[in-house]
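This week, study the protein below.
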Amino acid sequence: MAASVDKQDAGTYRRQFLKTSAATIAASALSSCGWRLAEVKSNPRMQGDSDLLYIYTWAGYTDQDLLDRFYDETGIKVVADVFDSNESMLARVQAGGGGAYSIIYPSDYMVQKMESLGLLTELDHSLILGLDDLFPEFQDPIYDRGNTYSVPISWGTTGLIYNRKLLPTAPTDWEYLWENQDLISKRLTLVNDVREVMGCALRKLGYSYNSTNVENIRGAYQELLILRPAIASFTTDGWRSQILVEDLLIAMCYSSDAAEIKPENEDLEYITPRSGSSLWTDTLVIPTNAPNPDGAYQWINFMLQPDIAAEIVERLSFATPSREAYRRLSEELKEDPTLFPPESIIEKCESLAPLGEYEEVYDEYWTKLRSG
């Protein structure tokens, strides 16, 4: 059996999630993240300006309409920078390059790590409106009990998007990539994320995404070495245009991104691998050195407004943990399996947990894989 970090807690979270799934998938919002950045700048400098808010976010989590509405309501201009992995975000913040940001969008396991490093502000819940409207599983998550440092903003799964017209058989699980390596060679991309890529190989072998068994981790790396010649690139967002013009046959991606891109090509399908995948939650946090904390609380409250959250789901395929926002969604969205996978799949998924000292093992193999 694979050793894992917080395996019992992760199981508790999944059981809690499933316990409310009937109401949650019939009363929850499982959409995703898609996006078009309205304004992106690489070197924010205007710290301390109450009329300016810098955020550090995933691609697809905002657009011009959203930023314009926030400005109209608050008089605050938002400038958004983009990161493509939790690790690259953390590296920039630790290196001092995140000093201008007042809102950051880490995923669940990264919230724990950032908090342990003293990088996050404890939230003043008296300044936040809408926490009580979150589905129960999002009000006391294992990665941040009581939402002490973070507010969940979206969630979903990691899986495979593919062109059904170009593939003779449809993928159902991770092993498809290895079994069809010759067919998809150089027309496959994986996300630029150590935990997701190592995790899919671990799951292919029957192990936990959070394994701390060194032999299991090495085995996952060796599996990825076998697949490496077929991988065109490691990219979290670059696959979009490539799959639309049919340069790619299949890409590893987040369900939110798949939900956004699928309407652009009727031949695109998304699957959450049947053996399981990662079940992620992305959040809003305020860093300890935030230059505009007042603006940060206004952004959090803005994003928690049910009409805003529902509008974002409809327009950007952005999953919401808000009960009221979910109730406002169209039936078509509520029944979309890309956004709402069946319980039989969800119960096999895992939330990523911090790995402690074993992060170095993952990073070592990730570096070797990327440089190979």
Q: What stands out?
A: Strands lie at 52-58, 77-83, 101-104, 151-163, 188-190, 231-234, 250-254, 268-271, 279-284. The two ends are 29 Å apart (CA to CA). The longest helix spans residues 214-227.
